[in-house]
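in:
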């Protein structure tokens, strides 16, 4: 989180970060203009609960942006969870955010060089969705 704040300060933008335990977090409804999840991997029940919470916590017109490893990542040696239960399925995004405008959706191979834990050819899901205005 400190790195996020440092990068934001260098670029002259304001970001709000919060460190929470997702299993007990209380998400305030329609609080956030944008929520971003990059390589946030959790067991399926917690993941689905979190995605539903994100959906409710984004303000109308706001965005949810995510890049995560897909269920097809296991044979790749480029990082990510080693348990299938921690990997995302495309239908999770498409079903939970089915009433949102999908700005970008991609599932496939990408090359990532983001440190020793995320390096090389990877199989990801990218999602950018916009919550409808009222």
């Amino acid at each position: 989180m400190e790195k996020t704040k440092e990068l934001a300060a260098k670029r002259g933008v304001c970001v709000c970060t919060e460190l929470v335990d997702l299993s007990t977090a209380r998400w305030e409804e329609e609080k956030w203009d944008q929520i971003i999840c990059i390589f946030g991997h959790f067991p399926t029940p917690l993941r689905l609960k979190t995605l539903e919470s994100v959906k409710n916590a984004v303000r109308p017109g706001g965005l949810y942006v995510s890049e995560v490893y897909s269920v097809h990542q296991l044979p790749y040696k480029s990082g990510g969870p080693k348990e299938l239960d921690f990997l995302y399925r495309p239908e999770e995004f498409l079903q939970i955010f089915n009433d949102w405008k999908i700005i970008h959706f991609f599932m496939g191979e990408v090359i990532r060089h983001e440190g020793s834990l995320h390096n090389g050819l990877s199989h990801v899901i990218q999602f950018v969705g916009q919550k409808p205005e009222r």
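note: Residues 101 and 130 are 5 Å apart (CA to CA).
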